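Give me the fold.
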Amino acid sequence: RFMPDELTTFYHTPAYETLTEAQRLRYNQLNALYFNEQTMFFEKALARNVLGHFLANPLPETLKSGLRQFMTEEEQHSAMFHDLNQKCAPVIYGRRDFHFIQVPEVAAKVLDFISKRPTWFPFLLWLMHLQEERAMFFGRTFLKYADWLEPHFVAVQRRHLADEIGHVHWDEELRDWVWPRTGLLLRRFNIQIFRWMIEEYFSTPKRSAGSLISAL
């Protein structure tokens, strides 16, 4: 297995019991590839633009130094997850980073626009914090079951977890710098967007979870 079964979606449904062991194994492996895509997507589509914006603007030097390291490590993580997916599924990932995650062109342009303006859309900082803490939870669960998992996936998660601890700290510092400087109306606007994103993308499995079943 590439990841703990309990971190996969289908595992928690009654229909999972109808699968053969070979089918469960394949679903587990596909889910791990998708999980790697998720990590790459947030690091490439979100963190790079958000961090780049703040590095180009005045900040306390200690925070700026941490953000430089943050960005460097995020780029290393993306390369690490891409290499792992490519080695496991070279036909799928030979020429692209994403297979299960397909973002419409309009949505990609909107995300690129807002992620380059995080002082207008500080909900992005809360979203990054959520993703970092989620990654830490996943990483610790990988290590908990390390003896039963494919060693390369465990090694990548161990490296990722070690860096994410520092990233959560920088997320908090950046959020504490930006949020108090955000006006009340803009705060309320961002809270509504963040609430919608949680409901749409995090509370219930939807698009990519269905793509995994289709692939299986």
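Helices lie at 21-55, 61-88, 90-93, 105-115, 123-144, 151-178, 184-202, 207-215.
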